[in-house]
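Forgive a beginner's question, but might I ask you for the amino acids of a protein and the tokens describing how it folds?
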Amino acid sequence: MTVFVFPGVRLLDVTGPIEVFTSANEFGGRYRVQTVSEDGAEVITSAGTRISADLAVEDVHEPCDVLVIPGGPEWDTLVEDDAFLDVVRRLHEKARCTASVCTGAFLLAAAGLLEGRRAATHWRHSRQLALRFPSVRVEADAIFVRDGRMMTSAGVSAGIDLSLALVEDHYGAEVARAVAKDMVVFMQRPGGQSQFSVRSQVPHSRQEVLRRLLDEVAENPGANHTLSAMARRAGLSVRHVTRLFCEEVGTTPARYVEQVRLEAARVLLETGDDSMPVVARRTGFGSPESMRRAFVRHLGVTAGAYRARFRTTGAGTKDAVSEAVSP
């Protein structure tokens, strides 16, 4: 496994995949991880941290299973550097699979390696990737995409998702699951890049009383958040609270509470082993049946089926990306 490093590279784009593959070696993997820079010298990352290189590009003679091309803030300068792009091509020729992290997709595209292929990058740059390289079919919401021997992933931490999928390819789901648990990360994270927490999507309100109610629900979704209870805590009428939610949040109090509870339940199902009754109680649904109905209504799957999908990275699915399941 080879990681190409260069001046200004983003640190986590490099260390995330390295951590996955080296951790896999603790559970039966046999990866030989090496860093390569253009001239073999150490580089300074965008965070100011120095990373040493094991080899210079000209010293890479053996093929590798995986080549990782990370991104960096100065990608727009690198895509104009023909000598740099030639280095990317030369490394690609010796790799069985070439994978990019975040804006590394721009480097692959500029090197002509994504012609006619599907690809992903950070959501903030997906439109620019599509405009700059129209032959690349950009999937803006994908966490990672596989197209032949090329893999591309979304922003920064998505390199970990991509690396876990490759570990599963090479050594099976059990090893990938062991690595994910050891690193305390999702085996397969929920949703796509467009999915953010319910509370963070609510526009900032000038109404302090409403902000307090929203925070109370987000901080403790299992508490009593009936309309009458919220109105009592706010010292307002039921009608006034309903109007505030509709005008400021764009939904009813009941719908907002259910969305927050659904998000909390998803986190518990993804990361823990609590039983369905415990999850339902902790997140305010009360019973597994109420929670099941909410999952089916919003996500189209039962809570049990939702939990089951985290037994794999999803690398073998049709698109090798997470399905969007926004609330």
In short: The first helix runs from residue 11 to 24. The domain at 2-183 is CATH 3.40.50.880 (Rossmann fold). Residues 213 and 230 are 7 Å apart (CA to CA).
